[in-house]
Write a structure and sequence with these properties.
The protein has 503 residues and is of the alpha/beta class. Helices cover 39% and strands 19% of the residues. Bound molecules: NADP nicotinamide-adenine-dinucleotide phosphate and magnesium ion (MG).
């Protein structure tokens, strides 16, 4: 079944600031200045809800990455950032958070136009979390210390540790929730005293460019943050660059593996936030009034384009019929449309390429025996929309069970066993290990499952909630290392031991 997506004319809704920003011919941010890419090449920036061009970006390449790394190296070795009092560094990070709040409407509009999500979610969730992230790490800037260590080496010693910034960091981010992804990367690296070259996804360059301006306005010295827009080749040049000390990457598992191989030459440090195939368990004693929309949103947030999407939904047989029907009803009630339309709940997928990829996985699932319970199909009209789809009859081994879909597709499965071992082995039957959620009032059961699911984050009676203070990252092929909390600082520092022989 198909229906039409009504698109509003978004131009009338844009603030002056947003319209001004869109109309600029964007360049690269290197050494605190806007510079043309060496090749002079540009690319169109597309609104995925309409497929129309909304702005123009610079298409950076290897020479631009070289220039950006040089600026970051100069700022790291000879600039003031590392040497600045930590109070001053903290103030600048706090100011970046305040400026994000101040420009929240513009940032949210740019993000909606570039990425497609609904305005309210972007403004009240992602923009707010981005500002909070800088404020949280502003607090860490003054607290990155070491410790004194009692040692038993011969003689008398004063031994201590210090944490030092790793150096020049290459940061590569994906097109889903790009502003928040930039904040997750930048705030801890800057708090630690590193300098950065940021490469946003080619599909969503806008908010990274706006953040560069905000950082400059907040007083970040030139060269500390450099932004090079471009495609995967620019990302690869950053990863291969011999003068980059660390790469922090968020994106697909396949690209993550390519990055690990490419980083081996100078053994640069690597942290990876990759894909997922997160299980969700609904038990009969759960508060179903909350659980039904909760588990639907666990997948449908951002039209399924979230690394933590709870795409494998296990429902206890006692409540299976009610929960599947409720999830389908909820999904059907969501209005698809342009993210700037206040009535919109669900936006489009990011691109034609992504839409056809998702449709391909869905079709493979149907060919393998999965059934469409509700939704499915592409509405008529422009943009890369897909109606939320609930699948049943999904079995282990099927493509839709195994692969990260990254679209609004829920695979509902019946749990016919209360056997904890069976549930745990089902949950862990994936190469991924990013997230999971358990919906029950039985705290003992929830804790037992939380302890045995091999995933970096387990939510109980919730899903997709993150906080700057709470470590985040993946087991298995969902990544290397953790972001957030003190783990975020560890990821951007080297630990040095100093042993002073006192005689
Ligand atoms: P992607 O294709 O891996 O791209 C991610 C970034 O890497 C983009 O900036 C991309 O540039 C760049 N890139 C592509 N090839 C590269 C190469 N050989 N070397 C270096 N950089 C390269 O991922 P995506 O499709 O944009 O994003 C979706 C994926 O991100 C999903 O798998 C999702 O689960 C994952 N994700 C994970 C988290 C997490 O925290 N675990 C959060 C969000 C998303 P171009 O865009 O220009 O190609
Ligand atoms: Mg776009």
């Amino acid at each position: 079944m198909t229906s039409t997506v009504e698109l509003i004319d978004f131009k009338e809704r844009l603030s002056d600031a947003t319209a001004r920003f869109l109309s600029r011919q964007h360049r690269l941010f290197i050494g605190g200045e806007w510079v043309q890419p060496a090749s002079g090449a540009t690319r169109d920036v597309i609104d995925p809800a309409t497929g129309a061009k909304i702005s123009t970006m610079a298409d950076g390449g290897t020479a631009d990455i070289d220039a950006a790394v040089k600026a970051a190296r100069e700022a790291f070795e000879h600039g003031e950032w590392r040497r600045m009092s930590t109070n001053e560094r903290a103030k600048i990070l706090w100011k970046i958070g305040s400026l994000i709040d101040e420009h929240a409407e513009e940032l949210a509009q740019l993000e909606v136009l570039d990425e497609g999500s609904a305005y309210n979610v972007v403004k009240n969730f992602y923009v707010r979390l981005s500002a909070d992230h800088f404020r949280y790490y502003s607090g860490w800037a003054t607290k990155i210390g070491g410790s004194t260590v009692p040692v038993n080496m011969p003689g008398e010693w004063h031994a201590y540790t210090v944490r030092e910034p790793i150096g020049v960091v290459g940061q590569i981010i994906p097109w889903n929730v790009p502003l928040l992804m930039a904040a997750w990367k930048l705030a801890p690296a800057l708090a630690a005293g590193c300098t950065v070259v940021l490469k946003p996804a080619e599909d969503t360059p806008l908010t990274a460019l706006r953040i560069a301006e905000i950082c400059r306005e907040a007083g970040l010295p030139p060269g500390v943050l450099n932004v090079v827009t471009g495609d995967g080749k620019a990302g690869a040049a950053l990863v291969e660059h011999p003068d980059v000390d660390k790469v922090a990457f968020t994106g697909s598992t396949a690209t993550g593996k390519a990055i690990v191989r490419a980083a081996a030459d100078n053994l640069k440090r690597v942290t990876l936030e990759l894909g997922g195939k997160s299980p969700v368990f609904v038990f009969p004693d759960a508060d179903l009034e909350r659980a039904i929309p909760g588990v639907a949103e666990a997948v449908l947030l951002n039209s399924g384009q979230a690394c933590t999407a709870g795409s494998r939904l296990y429902i206890h047989e006692d409540v299976y019929d009610r929960v599947v029907a409720g999830v389908a009803e909820y999904a059907e009630s969501l209005k698809l449309g342009h993210g700037l339309d206040p009535a919109t709940h669900l936006g489009p997928l990011i691109s034609e390429r992504q839409l056809s990829r998702v449709k391909g996985i869905l079709q493979a699932g149907l060919d393998e025996g999965a059934k469409v319970y509700s939704g499915g199909g592409q509405p008529s009209g422009p943009g890369y929309f897909l109606r939320p789809t609930v699948l049943t009859n999904v079995k282990p081994g099927m493509t839709v069970y195994r692969e990260e879909i990254f679209g609004p597709v829920i695979s509902a499965m019946k749990m016919s066993s209360d056997d904890l071992d069976a549930l745990v082995s089902e949950a862990n039957n994936t190469v991924y290990g990013l997230a999971a959620s358990v919906w029950t009032k039985d705290l003992s059961l929830a804790h037992k499952l939380a302890a045995r699911i091999r995933a970096g984050v387990v939510w109980v009676n919730n899903h997709n909630q993150t906080d700057a203070a709470l470590p985040f990252g993946g087991y298995k092929q969902s990544g290397w290392g953790r972001e957030m909390g003190f783990s975020g600082i560890e990821a951007y520092t080297e630990l040095k031991s100093v042993g002073v022989y006192l005689g």
